[in-house]
Amino acid sequence: MKNIIIFHFILVGILTACISPNIKEKNLVERYRPQIHFSPDSMCMNNPNGMVFYKGEYHLFYQYNPHSTEWGSMHWGHAVSDDLIHWEQLPIALYPDSLGNILSGSVVIDWKNTSGLGSELNPPMVAVFTYQNSILEKEGSNQFQTQGIAFSNDSGRTWEKYAHNPVLNNFGMKDFRDPKVFWDNETEYWIMVLAVHDHVNIYSSTDLLNWEFESEFTPNFGSFEGIWECPDLFPLTMKNGEDRKWVLLISLRNGAPNGGSGTQYFVGEFNGHYFIPEGNKTKWLDFGSDNYASASWSDIPEADGRRISIGWMNNWQYADEIPTTAWRGAMTIPRKLSLTKIYDQTMISSEPIEEFDAAVSEVKKLQPTKVNGEVLIENDFETPSVLTLRFNTSRRTALGFPEIFGLRLYNDMNEQVMIGMDNLNQMIFVDRSMAGWDNESNLFARIHYAPYFYNSDEIELKIFIDRSSVEMFTKDGLVVMTEQYYSSEPLNRISILSKNGEIEILNGSIKKLFSIR
Ligand code: FRU
Q1: Mean pLDDT of 141-156
Q2: Cα 71 to ligand 1 centroid, rounded to whole Å
Q3: Candidate of 45, 49, 63, 102 to mutate for ligand 1, largest count of ligand atoms within 8 Å of Cβ
Q4: Which DSSP symbol is given to 198?
């Protein structure tokens, strides 16, 4: 009898496990769940925050509302990785307190224990973030955003708020947020860049606890169409390794080249007090609609030397509407940044991090071919994959060169994403106008364009394709387009298109990637 009862319990246990997989697992296999991007198990995530490398781990904190799949009561979520591809989601790092919700900010390692919040033997991780006091906000005060700090002495597993927060008070600016802090080797000060509505304030500190105003960055060029948010200031070397300049990233809630949110940048010099921009052109980090609030990792070891950024793969135009269910919001893939000089302009070049080379499970090489019309190259396409295509563009002006060429990713439901080059207008484009889902105000299902900066005899596109996103990089990294798409069925076929002319594919490949889920 006892054996029968035990057997019965085992059987019920097995059946329950099979029939009702726990909610967490169910969430992870959702139709749109990214397979090579970080997304939270459940609920709403926006900007990446506090990226820092410490004791062998890449930390990624993020704006997180654990109570809803929409933006609201913001906390700092937390994930760690040892390769920037596989992420382990950890418990929430920072909770709201009496001073407010926890908005964006950064984390530094206080190696010399200047703050006294740890020790030199075990340097503290210090988070500097914005408090958003909703009570003051509701009362109509303009001083509801202040800057606070928290620290951790156990590799970010537990956090304590600093007892004398806020460390930077607000003197009446409604938008006063998103501190990004770094140690300036020249002056031996901590520097903070802070977004203040339509400009950036620069502050300095010797101990992370007391901050002094240094200067205000208000350039006479650039985009001011949206509120400035999430600045990041760092030195960056030229691709050839010869020169180094400073770069200031600034995200704009509205006014990006293809609508809504985007990140502009300035190249220039920083002397410990002022940032002095060069040139007079507005420059954008990514021409797609879905790379917002990009910021870079702190404290990557010098031996590695890379400046790696990550962004929120979304846009405030439709962030709370995208049709995922258990969760909302994913990050872009991490990118390696460097500088390239094109004609008289110094521009940021973004490339996928090399770590993805080790994540390839299968390679299919594409034969060189010429296409006039449309040719199917993959009938059974699966995500996540990286597609590389090198086109011969040497006949750009000759008769017979196509008006438009590129690739079409589609399914039998007539849903498609097209990526290619519009040769008449000299633009690169991603067309998601027929990809399936659109938001209520029809701002999602559109064609997006990026300028193609220069003439060359060939163009190589590298495209990371996941279940609900495409990220296109030109080989030089100067044009990047990050775009979400929500088709009702997977886009499982790929063809090459050439309209009114012939295009030559010099070579290419489809590399299937391992899923991180
Ligand atoms: C940018 C932003 C930040 C703010 C955070 C709030 O997307 O608006 O300025 O800190 O999101 O979640």
Answers
A1: 97
A2: 10
A3: 63
A4: T
